[in-house]
Amino acid sequence: MQEFIGVAPPVLLFLLGAAGLAGWVDAVSGGGGLIQLPALLIGLPNAAPATVLGTNKCSSIIGTTAAAVTYRRAAVNDMKTAVPMAIAAFFGSAVGAHLATRIPGSYFRPLALILLLIVGAWTLLRPALGEDQDLRWHGTENHVRHGVAAVAMGALIGTYDGVFGPGTGTFLVFGLVSLLGYSFLNASAIAKVVNVSTNLAAIIVFGLGGHVLWILGITMGLANLTGAVIGARTAVRKGSGFVRIVFLVVVGLLLLRMGYDIVVH
């Protein structure tokens, strides 16, 4: 069979399926990179790591944007928090993507693994966490504290996303729930806006370096978009309890994957 965009048809079908599933997971709770990034590593075994990361971002941003719009239409998104947080995350991601060309991602695996253990245990031991929205800081004076915390979180997690990536959406959702008091549903909606920003910054950096397979990334992005819209609608319909369950499953899978990577490498 003739290859399409440099990829054999069976491999392309595999990548499209992975992108669609990743879009669904990412829209619900974050963590779509857990599926799509390994799929690209398998499907493009001879590609440079930066090219795999850049192509992954190209696909992801299409689905993430669709999920953010879907959440926005459902009126579960706090744009006053999401926009400043996204701006900070954009610059953090740009710095991180620049560092990614110089620092091996393996340096960050142990730290990410420890953080995920804390995130999973904390969420599991607190069943009521994120069930209802109860913002930590209320009123005009405390609104400043809320904004500063959101911006700092965006910059820090954005840098992590640019330099390494796996678990970014998961960390965003957990931070918004545990530190700022959002419900899981609203946190996931805000995280999508921030993810669009971090993906865009990374794409600019990787794209300028020639590390994006644009046609493949856009093709996978259409599948990612389909999964993302379905995932966002499912999350809105089923609510925070459903998002929490998917969140815990994703955390568990991320722990297994990163633990395996550390043992093997």
Provide a short characterization of the protein structure:
The protein is mainly alpha-helical. It has helices at residues 9-29, 33-43, 49-73, 79-100, 109-125, 139-163, 168-178, 184-208, 214-238, 240-264. It has one domain (9-264).
Can you describe this structure?
The protein has 265 residues and is mainly alpha-helical. The chain has one domain (9-264). The protein contains ten helices and no strands. α1 runs antiparallel to α2, α4 packs parallel to α8 and α6 (139-163) packs across α8. The radius of gyration is 17 Å and the shape is globular. The mean pLDDT is 86.
Task: Looking at this protein, list some descriptive labels.
single chain; 265 residues; mainly alpha
Main sheet overview: none
The overall pLDDT average reads: 86
* Number of alpha- plus pi-helical segments: 10
Radius of gyration: 17 Å
How far the N terminus sits from the C terminus, by CA atoms, comes to 35 Å
Into which percentage range does the β-strand content fall? under 5%
Number of strands: 0
Given as residue ranges, the uncertain stretches (5+ residues, pLDDT < 50) are none
Overall number of domains: 1
Kindly name the structural category.
Answer: mainly alpha
Shape: globular
Helix and strand element order:
HHHHHHHHHH
Helical fraction: over 70%
What oligomeric state best describes the polypeptide chains here? single chain
